[in-house]
Amino acid sequence: MGMVRAWRRAAWGLLTLSLLPGARAALTENLAVSPAAMSMGNAVTADPQGLDAVHFNPAGLTRLEGRVREDTIFGASLRMRSEFHQPQGYDIGGFTQDPLDGTVSDHNRQTLFLPLAGVPNWRLPFVAAAGLGISLNQPGSPWTFATAVYVPQAVGFDRSKNPDDPGRFQGKRVVIQRLVYASPSVAYKFSDELSVGLSIPIAHQGFALDTDMRFPNKLIGIFGKLQDAWCGDNGNPLDVFGFGICGGGKEGRLNPYTTAGAMRFEATSPADPTFNLGVLWEPTDWFGLGAVYQSGSRTVLTGRYNFHAEPMFRKLVQGMYSSLQGPIVAATLGFPTSIPEEQSGNMTLVLPYPPHVQVGVKLKPVERLQLNVDANWTDWGQWNQLTFQFDQQVRFLQMARLFGQADASKLVIPRGYRSNVHFGYGAEIEVMHGLKLRLGYEPRKSSIPQDKIDLIAPLPDMKVRSLGLNWTTEDGTQLIVAASLAKGSYKVPADGSCNLNCTNFFNVIYNPYAGLDVSGETRLRYFGVSVTRPF
């Protein structure tokens, strides 16, 4: 009877945890850290598997006896499709036909960040990564020591194959990657029921963004129409005594659809430490509780930037400063005296790696069936905006002073992400002695609100379904194989996201699809294999 009552209490606790209201929470965390975890919907805090415990719950390292080694390999393929449509009544300062209307972006491939080398010019059908973990435990000792190499965060895509890909205005190449290359860890077993653990992951953080830019802004459209009326097809001889808005010729005519330039950032933090603190309580064979706190970091990255300016703004400024009244107006608006075609230098970026909390329950209602549920919280609210600090005034950015960007030595890209809770679910079925089937389901509610989504991070709500096998041999070697499919879709009507398609005067940075309806789908396929064995 006592066991029945305990089971009922645990079941009610599990049910209560499952019924808490869902909220926006997930981006890239835990996607491809461990084949065992992904096959269980990443619901492994109360049942950490092997050396993966370094990340998911260091207290679970006390389960490893003697000397253990784990080798892991992952592969992933990310495919994104976006469509652009012009709604009825579309108008950007008098321009009424966007050339992107009816176009599709769907030819992306993968890329990655190589420490010491940066982002290579490779377009990969998929990316692969390897992991390694080692643990040491003296027989009978309550102490276990370990370290592991793994990738807790990785997103990298390349849209550069088609030079006219409409997605290029929010990333020809984008990479955010965190590689843990050392994670000294220790776990202590207080009793057969209770363990605690601490790991200190030391990571290389890489970031790269390479994008073309256009500015479909109403003020730019109105100015362009004014130029067309005043300058005509062959210029206006009176313009040299005025403001010089014709002096740049046809190349200097403002058009909200013309590619204005390109910017490229590449930055790293070569050694960024955090810590993971975990506790594991297993009072019986059929019930367990686990919790982990991952500290996060305000990672400071340093690197290089490059701004390329197409003729439109360069010629406009050149013409204004060649006229009689133009320099007065240009100086009043804060325009630079000239814009170089290329401007490069050093930059700094604070890219928060947000703290993460995960709490889980493990239940075995019958001998051959185990059920896991985990609650996850990640503080993606720290990504309210990203600020790129440059070593000089970027003259291309000085053109944005009219839109409230007062300091051209920095670029502020709004994000507006949210922090809250999402859940993961896993089931493990013992098919026969030594062979287990695993099923995972993780409805990942995106930390990107619908009104903040864009093509730099096209990560909507996604449902992740996983399948895996665990085969254990007589000598204790474990072979784990897992595969997952994650997909989600989004529809953002015109003016639906001010990181994407707003038409407000002062949303010039950055809404390259202003006034367009944007819809799309993101699909991620990934697989993993790990071998754990004594050595």
Structural summary, described in words:
This protein has helices spanning 2-19, 35-38, 53-56, 218-231, 311-320, 326-332, and strands at residues 67-85, 104-105, 109-110, 127-136, 143-158, 173-182, 185-189, 194-199, 202-213, 261-273, 276-284, 287-294, 297-309, 342-353, 356-366, 369-378, 385-390, 410-414, 420-432, 435-444, 462-472, 478-492, 517-534. The chain has 535 residues and is mainly beta. The longest helix is centred in the N-terminal third of the chain and has 18 residues, at 2-19. Residues 1-25 have low confidence and may be disordered.
Give a quick set of tags describing it:
535 residues; mainly beta; 14-stranded antiparallel barrel; elongated; disordered N terminus
SSE layout and pairings?
Elements (H helix, E strand, L loop, with lengths): L1 H18 L15 H4 L14 H4 L10 E19 L18 E2 L3 E2 L16 E10 L6 E16 L14 E10 L2 E5 L4 E6 L2 E12 L4 H14 L29 E13 L2 E9 L2 E8 L2 E13 L1 H10 L5 H7 L9 E12 L2 E11 L2 E10 L6 E6 L19 E5 L5 E13 L2 E10 L17 E11 L5 E15 L24 E18 L1
Antiparallel strand pairs: 1-2, 1-4, 1-23, 3-5, 4-5, 5-6, 5-7, 6-9, 7-8, 8-11, 9-10, 10-13, 11-12, 12-15, 13-14, 14-17, 15-16, 16-19, 17-18, 19-20, 20-21, 21-22, 22-23
Beta-strand content bin: 35-45%
Tell me the total number of β-strands: 23
Side-by-side strand order of the widest sheet: 1-4-5-7-8-11-12-15-16-19-20-21-22-23
Q: How much is the average pLDDT?
A: 90
Q: Percent helix among the residues?
A: 10-25%
Radius of gyration: 27 Å
Termini, distance in Å?
Answer: 44 Å
Summarize the main sheet. Answer: 14 strands, antiparallel, barrel
Shape: elongated
Secondary structure tally, helices? 6
Q: Which regions contain 5 or more consecutive residues with pLDDT less than 50?
A: 1-25
- Assign the structural class, choosing from mainly alpha, mainly beta, alpha/beta, alpha+beta, or little secondary structure: mainly beta
